[in-house]
Amino acid sequence: MTNLPPGAGPTDNSDDENNGAVPPVPPVPPLPPVPPVSPPPAGTSGQDAPPPYQPPPAYVPPPAYAEVPPGQVPPGQYGQPPQYGGPPPAAPPGGVNGLAIASIIVGGVAFIGAFIPFLNYAVWFVALVGLVLGIIALVRKGKSKGLAIGGTILSAVALILSIVLAIVYTVGFIGAVNQAVDEGLATITPIPADPLPSDDPFATTEPDEGTDDGTDDGGLGDVIAAQFGQVVTYDDGMEISVSEPTPFTPSGNAVGADQATNLSFTVTIVNGTATDYQPFSFSTVTSGGVEASLIIDPDNGAEGLPPVDTIPAGQTVTYVEAYSVADANDVVFDVAPGFEYTTARFTN
User: Fold this and answer.
1) Can you tell me the distance from the alpha carbon of 325 to that of 106, in angstroms, rounded to the nearest whole number?
2) Which of 50, 116, 148, 255 might form a disulfide with 137, Cβ 3.0–4.6 angstroms?
3) Which residue spans traverse the membrane (predicted)?
């Protein structure tokens, strides 16, 4: 029998089984199709052509992460950023609080000034400024509170002290002035007046009835009884007189015309001494046992104030006083040129 190449000649299964032939080889799978290569664009050389198509790299699975505790997401998964722990702790409050320092300085100045007489009348405003600065420093955020608390307390104490001490100093000052005036009046020796003519019914002096025990009031000694229009002359040459009362018609601007009758009096002071004199006259008028009301009416020449200008030696000063009285027939007018002179009492 002639040997034939494999696959040649008729196929006979019986012969293959008898001859022990090898079964046929399975076919080779076809190769993947190759994409066509586009020709290079016109005007370009082969060196400028794009590179041939390369298949994408094979998928490589990501590396496995270490085991994470339950409830936490591994970093980089599901769009979550990596976790690096909790947020950083907040910085403790600090820094220099300028308003607190200003409050302490202003409060300290006010605290010292509160003890200085007369200055504490205005230092309360400084203490108030320090108190406001301290309160503002307390409410500021991110600043230390210790200095602010100290400045607020110091300014508040200074404010209270300045008000309390101002009241105390005022009361003490007024008391000292009153005491000095009382002591000064007690040391004044009244200058007596020359005796009036013996045939004058008012040519005597009588005790001042200003006190219950019949003694003089304020150390002014006895009063000198005189009649309206009469001149009272003192030992040093000073003279004083009060004219007869005349009816007084107050203007629409007058103040004090509140009793039955309105009268005016002309007071004359003659400086018969050898030196200039500073008058300090003060009048007291009563009528029917009732104190008269002083009328102030500048439109009619009743200023309500005695003269205070210096009277040169040998010169005379005259001024008008008006009073509203209860009884025009019973008027007592007490006046003196100054504290050092005995009071002259003029009656009608």
Assistant:
1) 59
2) 148
3) 96-116, 122-139, 146-169
DSSP string, 159-220: HHHHHHHHHHHHHHHHHHHHHHHHHHHHT--PBPBPPPPTTSTT-SEE---SSTTS--STT-
Give how far the C-alpha of residue 35 lies from the chain's centroid of Cα atoms, to the nearest Å.
Answer: 94
Q: Are residues 224 and 323 in the same domain?
A: yes
Looking at the structure, do residues 233 and 175 belong to the same domain, yes or no? no
- Asked if residue 301 and residue 180 are part of one domain, the reply reads no
Residue 108 is assigned to a structural domain of this protein: yes
- Compute CA distances 328 → 55, 323, 325, 347, whole Å: 140, 10, 6, 11
231 & 109 share domain: no
Dihedral angle of Cα 171, 174, 178, 183, to the nearest 10 degrees: 90
Q: What is the DSSP string of 83-122?
A: P--SPPPPPPP-S--HHHHHHHHHHHHHHHHTTSTTGGGT
pTM confidence score: 0.43
The amino acid that residue 280 corresponds to is F
**Residue 231 shares a structural domain with residue 341:** yes
Q: Read off the tokens for 126.
A: 């400084």
230: CATH:
2.60.40.1240
Asked whether residue 201 carries a pLDDT value surpassing 50, the answer given is no
The range of the structural domain enclosing residue 342 comes to 205-347
What is the tally of structural domains in the chain?
2
Q: Do residues 134 and 212 both lie within one domain?
A: no
Q: Are residues 178 and 228 in the same domain?
A: no
pLDDT score recorded for residue 198: 46
Kindly report the length of the chain.
Answer: 348
Beta bridge partners of 321: 265
Q: Mean pLDDT across the chain, nearest whole number?
A: 77
Contacts of 114 (CB under 8 A, 6+ apart): 120, 123, 124, 127, 158, 161, 162, 165
- Residue pLDDT, tens place only, 70-79: 666 555 555 5
231: which residues sit within 8 A by CB, 6+ positions away? Answer: 239, 240, 241, 270
Same domain, 329 and 221: yes
Q: Is the dihedral of CA 133, 139, 140, 144 positive or negative?
A: positive
Q: What does the alpha-carbon distance between residue 132 and residue 137 come to, in Å, rounded to a whole number?
A: 9
